[in-house]
Recover the amino acids of this structure.
């Protein structure tokens, strides 16, 4: 149960933190000092045209869904393979979110931000694949064990 | 309840509380709390932040009312960098206050207490149709437009002046063989004229053959827009009446530029005369005036607007009645 709770909050934190971390990282990569980048992000939390809080909520939605499902799933027994599956789903989700957020924020195209609206749907495709992959790796490792 | 169930519900409860806090913060920032925060930025922040604050207040619409004193403070000095953005925000928050401000500014300009500087032209551009009384004043500045900044022609078009003086100025600037800001602004003005640029198509065809890529591309783009069917704009209000204010403003502006060809949309424009939004009611009167003689069927409804609570709407309706009665 403890592991399920840890994974639950880890997933929530990942979903909520990725947009902020990537925004601050890309602003720094473009030459802004770290403090300015953080200040810019907090100033844009409610600013029209930026709406960082709305973006965070949109981006976090599939992670919140994964967190809730994993809490029920991982606390229901057979924890080893299930943990591996949820870990796979989380890693796939994080990888996709980081890639999409950074490419949108580094893009020079004015319409790139449309990608933020597609991201949750892409996550819903990638996360189950990550879950299956995690369980597959887990079962392969168990078979390889002497 | 088992221990497992209790842990699950505690964690789900904590997550729900976090989500509720985020949503509450969004709601608060879109209301009085947000308006107060942006108003503070408007008074104290760096220039770029003040422009951002003014734009944010405009997005709040009527919810930005607590920031009206701060906006009017900024607008006392039209040279302030955020003055144009503040004028736009003022229209979105309280069109009646924007009209009162525009009337006072026009009065100051007419009494020569205020010059029509580039900054003042920018403020009129921000006010848009609400400042339609300023059209003669700004038109009189057209011959010296090179000294009045870049907003004079866009301001006149946004106020609804598609007349010969504006068109002549755009043609003159765009015909200049030397590529300059003035020529480029004239190219943008063709786009701003929308359907009103249709009689200028032969001139645009000539510009589309110019050697300068920026000029020829822009001319081709405007021509492309003109050659498309205007069905979208004609039905612009259909199904959207009284739903989204910004959409209605856009659709009414499009219909005004269509002129008499927008006659099919008159019943929908008349419906907007009963909108709860002051700016939409005013824009409906303004659009009917621009549609011209076919809109005479709406004269009874326009006369009924004489009892509207807003002087902006009453004056707009009176102006529309005069225009329609004088229309050929």
């Amino acid at each position: 149960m403890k592991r399920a709770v840890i994974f639950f909050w880890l997933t929530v934190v990942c979903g909520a933190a990725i947009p902020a971390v990537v925004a601050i990282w890309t602003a720094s990569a473009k030459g802004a000092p770290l403090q300015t980048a953080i200040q810019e992000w907090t100033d844009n939390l409610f600013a029209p045209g930026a709406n960082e809080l709305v973006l965070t909520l949109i981006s976090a939605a599939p992670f919140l869904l994964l967190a809730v499902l994993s809490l029920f799933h991982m606390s229901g027994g057979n924890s080893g393979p299930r943990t591996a599956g949820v870990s796979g789903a989380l890693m796939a989700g994080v990888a996709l979110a980081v890639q999409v957020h950074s490419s949108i924020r580094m893009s020079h195209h004015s319409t790139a931000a449309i990608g933020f609206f597609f991201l949750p749907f892409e996550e819903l495709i990638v996360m189950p694949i990550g879950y299956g992959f995690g369980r597959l790796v887990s079962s392969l490792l168990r078979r390889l064990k002497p | 309840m088992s221990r497992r169930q209790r842990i699950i519900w505690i964690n789900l409860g904590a997550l729900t509380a976090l989500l509720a806090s985020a949503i509450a913060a969004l709601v608060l920032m879109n209301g009085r709390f947000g308006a107060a925060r942006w108003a503070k930025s408007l008074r104290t922040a760096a220039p770029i932040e003040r422009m951002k604050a003014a734009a944010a207040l405009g997005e709040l619409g009527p919810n930005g009312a607590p920031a009206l004193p701060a906006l009017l403070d900024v607008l006392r000095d039209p040279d302030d960098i955020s003055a144009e953005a503040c004028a736009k925000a003022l229209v979105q928050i309280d069109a009646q206050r924007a009209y009162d401000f525009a009337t006072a500014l026009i009065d100051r300009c007419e009494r020569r207490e205020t010059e029509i500087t580039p900054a003042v032209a920018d403020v009129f551009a921000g006010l848009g149709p609400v400042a339609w009384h300023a059209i003669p004043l700004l038109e009189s500045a057209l011959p010296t437009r090179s000294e009045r900044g870049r907003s004079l022609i866009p301001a006149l078009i946004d106020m609804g002046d598609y007349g010969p003086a504006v068109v002549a100025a755009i043609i003159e600037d765009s015909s200049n063989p030397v590529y300059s800001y003035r020529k480029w602004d004239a190219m943008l003005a063709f786009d701003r004229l929308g359907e009103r640029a249709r009689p200028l198509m032969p001139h645009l065809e000539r510009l589309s053959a110019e050697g300068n890529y920026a000029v020829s591309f822009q001319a081709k783009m405007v021509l492309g827009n003109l050659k498309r069917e205007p069905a979208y704009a004609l039905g612009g209000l259909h199904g959207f009446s009284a739903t989204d204010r910004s959409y209605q403003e856009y659709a009414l502006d499009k219909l005004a530029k269509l002129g008499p060809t927008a006659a099919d949309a008159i019943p929908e424009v008349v419906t907007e005369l009963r909108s709860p939004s002051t700016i939409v009611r005013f824009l409906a009167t303004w659009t009917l005036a621009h549609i011209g003689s076919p809109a005479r069927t709406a004269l009874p409804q326009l006369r009924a607007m004489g009892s509207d609570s807003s002087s902006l709407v009453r004056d707009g309706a009176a102006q529309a009645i005069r225009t329609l009665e004088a229309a050929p």
